[in-house]
Amino acid sequence: MTDRNPTPAHRAHRHHWRRDVVELAAMFCAVAVADAIANLVVHGPRGPVLLVASAVALLVTAAFHTWWARRHSHAPPPGSTAPTGPEPSPPKGSGATAATTAAATTAPVSSTTLWRMRTTVRDEPGSLAVLCTALARNGADILTLQTHPLPEGGTVDEFLLRAPQELPSAELTRAISRAGGHSTWIERADAHDLVDTPTRVLGLATRTALDAAELPLALRQLLGRCTIHSIPATTLSGRPNAGADAPVEGVLEATVMRLRDPSGGAITVERPYLPFTPTEFARARALVELDARLGPRVPRSQDVLTLPEGNEITVRRADGSDQAAALAMHDRCSERTLSLRYHGPVHDADRYLGHLLSPRFGRTLAATTASGKLVALGHLLWDGDETEVALLIEDDWQRRGIGSELLRRLLAMAVEAGCDSVYAVTQASNTGMVAAMRGLGLPLDYQIEEGTLVITARLDAAPAGSRLPYELPRVLPQEFPHEQPAPRHRR
């Protein structure tokens, strides 16, 4: 609202009188000029020619004025899209600037890249606004934001960004550094990171509640790229294991956290490239406490499959309750079969069963006959950042497709768990295991050293059509009919 000073009445009257005199004088001048031109056109020697020339001059002047106005106007260039409505103005106090608006309107939307970025800033008012302004000036759109307070002061801010594809990560890091951020870490993200944190944590808690074997995978998905080791309370010889005495409340040491395993021992999580925050430590400890309250559990779903000769077998998840049946199967297996599986002294094979059947170290599938006898075991074992698969088939049930069926299901679990590859350790003479791995149709890498063969199946490099389905056929095909059964040596 504009303030106006009041004008005295006599000044306003004098002003109106002068204006009337000027308008009257201008009117008389216009009449005089019009009369002179009319007399010149009517009584002059070249009146009509002068009239036509005046009209042409007026037309040329009008055309020149139109051309000049279009060339030097402030209208948008041809081909630009006019706005369909009024542009909303940024709210007061939001920290938005003209540079933010310009970056938002000029940033390309068709070629962008998702980034996950962390940086540490001072815990003071305005520090986050400075970071957001620096990102906006580079055309980066903030999709999600998490803050992790630090006990010694300061805050770790975690962003999920959508930035122009041509913008390098180093430029984003430099912009954050100039805005006051330090210890900045950045990596590529994907569409799975678009899920908000509460939804992701609830999903991981649900998976952990349904299956005890999901705890290491849930911790890895919660904390990003990290290495998780489960340390048993005792060694195979029965001695206490070093590093397995984590306190109940856990221990956080920068890039390492140690949590008490509910099944005994400890869980060690390492992330050398990025220190853990107290917020992440609290989330991980909450998942472990949930697992401890629920106790041992394994999904009890099972599938009944028909072998080519007509026999039926049941494939299900196995756990510690199957240890007695697994020991009985060991007694029925030949020494050669056990040595191909365990690559060591056969008399030590039984000691591994407690470790193998524990859901903390992986997942185990069991194949049982119609009478309930256990005839095959398939293991998917978490080995730090890697994943191992292993099979043990009773001699009388080999070469019937059971091993290949278990292997397909184990790799389907590995795909579901987000593993990039799995490896199998066997001997070069174990043609059955080699054939089963080749039958998967996945890219394989072979490494032979002193008679030991390591076969790695690369799940991330497999074509889309070769990914293993979760719904598998109910009838097993007769696999590798050209191979003869291996010699059977009863114990």
TrEMBL record:
- Which intervals hold domain ACT? 116-191
Q: Where is the composition biased (Pro residues)?
A: 75-91
Could you tell me one molecular function GO term of this UniProt entry?
acyltransferase activity, transferring groups other than amino-acyl groups
Q: Which CDD domains match?
A: ACT (cd02116), NAT_SF (cd04301)
Q: Name one Pfam family in it.
A: Acetyltransf_1
Membrane-traversing stretches: 21-42, 48-68
InterPro entries hit by this protein: ACT_dom, Acyl_CoA_acyltransferase, GNAT_dom
List UniProt keywords, sorted A-Z: Membrane, Transferase, Transmembrane, Transmembrane helix
Q: Where is the composition biased (Low complexity)?
A: 92-107
SUPFAM superfamilies given in the database record: Acyl-CoA N-acyltransferases (Nat)
* Region (Disordered) location: 72-109
User: Which residue intervals define the domain N-acetyltransferase in the entry?
Assistant: 313-460
Name of protein? GNAT family N-acetyltransferase
